[in-house]
Please model this.
Amino acid sequence: MSSVVHSKIANIAASLGLEMQLDLDFDSIIKNLNDLDLKADCTLFCGDNIDVLASLYESQQNNVDFCYIDPPYNTTNSFIYNDTRVSQQSGLFGSHSSWMSFMLPRLVWARELLKDTGIITVSIDDYEQPYLRILLDTIFGEDNFIGNIVVCRSVNGKGSKKNIAVNHEYVLVYGKSSKSKILGMADDTSKYDKEDEYGRYKVDGLFRKKGDASRREDRPNMFYPLYYNDEGKVFTENTTGNLKEVYPLDSKGIERRWLWGKDKAKNEAWKLYASPNGVIYVKNYSTAEKRTKIRSLWSDNRYLTERATKQIKDIYGDKVFETPKPIELIEDLLFSHTSDSSLILDFFAGTGTTAHAAHNLNCIDGGKRKVILVEKDESIAPSHIAAKMGFNLISDITEKRLKHISNIDTNYKFSVHTIL
Ligand SMILES: C[S@@+](CC[C@H](N)C(=O)[O-])C[C@H]1O[C@@H](n2cnc3c(N)ncnc32)[C@H](O)[C@@H]1O
Model:
């Protein structure tokens, strides 16, 4: 079956005029992974992600709910990992072709692993963003473009090269199909300015029907008196004899109707609120399930790179990795884009922030998110601070983060696999 995916990759590459090498020995890799179970909270694969993605295909095709990746941005900076993929100025995409040829097959495999409802989110900056969009449009389809989130990563544009201090980078969001839906951010609880024994609520919905079929004669059994006291409590009978009475009349005195019949209003009177001048509302309670549409601009101190660097220093004792993401950014992406029982894939894992973010969320909401990470088992240059701190391979840094999580939470389980 992997040959079908191979053909897809070759066809897309040909349509974009990109060079592609497809010479992996999948059979031997796949055998290695067939017995794999993903029971652990996190499964880390150490190796080249193209091998791992292709190998996971047999067991995990159409099984992943959410994919977050933070690939090398092609900055040509000297990082712990190779961040230089610059080709000769030739072809349609000039010097970007090499980076696109690197990304293309990985994105195709990732799409194959996603469920039909799955979503992929990709961090990127201005340099490769247009080229990444071309790849994602071609592989996932323009119709499945969900959005481009602009994230403020640095307040004063630290690390910028030229005239404009660049504060932002992006997260591109694509669905695998029209069935892919994002859940949205947590509702802003500060909007719920009132509270009773049932929780926090706001009053923003009239209990009097408006618009079509709202007149008394449309639903006569929904026209009846309600009673209320000075604390805003609503009753269907004048139990004490000194409650105030109100009918569903509009501002012109026209007889309308309530939203519910009398029996429901009696049983659920606690959900109604009367303003001091006798307007009846349905209380709108804050619940954990309520979500609000995510915005395309994410600007919050919690998303700053300097915050991620501090987190890395706290965990590892020094800056062992140059380009980590802040945990909170990934937490918010996971929370807003996918459910609490999702299988999550990050095949450019770096320090393993995605696993840490998923674990934090599981602790908060009791979720059962599971994570597959992939990171290269490439040697770290001896001059790099990480090597001086005793790390041999980049994937050792990822593994250390997982150990860190399991030291804090002894229930946390992870497994590590080197596939070749
Ligand atoms: C930008 S970093 C990701 C950082 C990560 N988001 C974090 O918070 O730490 C990209 C990572 O992808 C890894 N990488 C690059 N090419 C890879 C490949 N072919 N297979 C697996 N990992 C790769 C690099 O070693 C690097 O750790």
Observations:
- Residues 48-49, 70-72, 81, 321, 323-325, 348, 350-351, 353, 374-376, 394 surround S-adenosylmethionine (CB under 6 Å).
- The CA atoms of residues 222 and 260 lie 6 Å apart.
- The chain has two domains: 2-184+305-418, 189-285.
